[in-house]
Each structure stands twice: as C-alpha cells, then as structure tokens.
Amino acid sequence: MSPQLVPFRKMEGVGNDFVLIEADAVQGRDLSELAQRLCHRPFGIGADGLLVVERGTRTPVRMRMFNPDGTEDFCGNGLRCAARFAYEHGYTSSTEFAIETLGGQSVPVQIHLREGSVDAITTVLPPPRFHPRDIPALADGEVIEDFPITVAGHSLRIACVNTGTTHTVIFDATLPDDALFQAVSPRLETHPMFPERTSVLWAVVASRDEVRVRIWERGVGETLGCGSGAAAVGVLAHRAGWTEPEVSVVSPGGSLKVKSTESGIVLTGQANTLFEGVFYL
Predict the structure, then answer these.
(1) Which domain holds residue 87?
(2) Of 39, 75, 81, 160, which is the active-site residue?
(3) Residue 209's pLDDT band (boundaries 50, 70, 90)?
C-alpha cells in the first residue's frame, strides 16, 4: 500500500508553533492520533499543536486544534495562524470574517495589511468566565482569585479564568527559575482541583502597560507563547487593578496586545509561515 501524502504548513504565533493541514486531506483519519504523530518532534514534524482547517457552514472558516497529547482544545495563537492561512488561500476575500472553533464558538477576525501583505491579526476571544464551574475548578465561591494552594511543597496564590480554555495564573515579583517551574507547573496542571487539567502561567506585572510571563500549557508542556493564556493574564491583571485595560503580554516568543472589553478579549499579534511540505502517512 503506497503512503498517503498530506500537504502541511508549519506556522507560528509568538513562538507557539503549529502544523496546519486542511481537513479534506485527512478525511476519515483519527485526528487525535494524527496530532500525536505529527506534533512529535523526533518522529513527526514537531509542533505545540495540530490545526485542522476547512470551510465552515456558518462562517467562512472552521478550525479544530489538537494538543500533542491528542486532546482537542481552544487556541488563541492557532486562530491567528488559521486566519492568515484562510485569507491567503482564498477561503474569503474579506479582511474581516469569523472562524468557527471548539464548541461552535464563532470568533471575529480582522486581518491588518501592510503594503498588501498580512502584518498582524486581531481576534476577539469570548468574554472571560470566572465562576469555578465554568473554568472548571473544584472550589467554592464565585471566583478564584488570590486562592491559596500548596503544590509540590510550595505555597502559592493562584487566580483562574476560562478564556476559551482553562488557565491558572501565578502572579509574583519574579518569574520562576527552572527548578521551581518544572517542579510545580506539571503538578498544578494535573491537580485534582482541575478535572479537565489547566494551563499554568507565571506572571510578573512589569508596569501598568506590560506583563511578562512564563508558560506551561495543558497537554503540551513549556511553550514560548499562548494566546488564550496571554488573554487570561491581561484580564486578571486588569481585574486586580494592576494594569490598564490594554496591556502587552510578553512571553519568551514575543508580545501580544490584550484589551479587555465588555464584548470579549481583543487579542492582536502576528502569525507567520515557517515552511511548507508533505508528510507521508
């Protein structure tokens, strides 16, 4: 039996890298298994996630995202990559459209052009959800803010929010060193408090306009960037009164603009193509 050839595009947004394929190329395939195979760095293409893009029925574009462990998830940086791909490949000729994603959510997108080329992309993520049942997290009360918890022998204060997916943020005066980051982050991701696990972001408020972060992403491990995570950090920092409504969230992979509004979280950043190829299945 000859191998199936699957065209792919490797893309990144603030260092969060993805393998993007079109749904037609993998019809009938188990996408969870495919994500594990394609995202594997030694034996696959290597990525923080698999994006599967197709034409939508309610919107011009539909995107599904799978973590390297095969779990399906919502992805802020992946949305910008899918938006750029769709615009450049004729899914739509408009610079303003919507992308259908996990759970049927419709995310508005705006493409910003410079001299006819894509320069940056703005997405409007859904309004943040703070109640423990919506995160989800097993905790009492209406919100989880400055919540005490002990993980791997370390006493922490955490804040939690769902910005399309589950995020837990640890605000501190400095970012963690490798020993602390590696000891706590995976244990907090899988803590019994979070029935669907959680991404973990360590954050330092540098000024009223900037927050610096280090990221442990659910189902992935350490990543250079996380769009929905940046949104979570920006929303929580503003809610605490530490920053302005619009803030730059700076991760090792780059910077994203996050703006809290009543209609949702406005997230602006770049999305870039690294290379294209064909994968043999």
Answers:
(1) 5-125+269-280
(2) 75
(3) very high
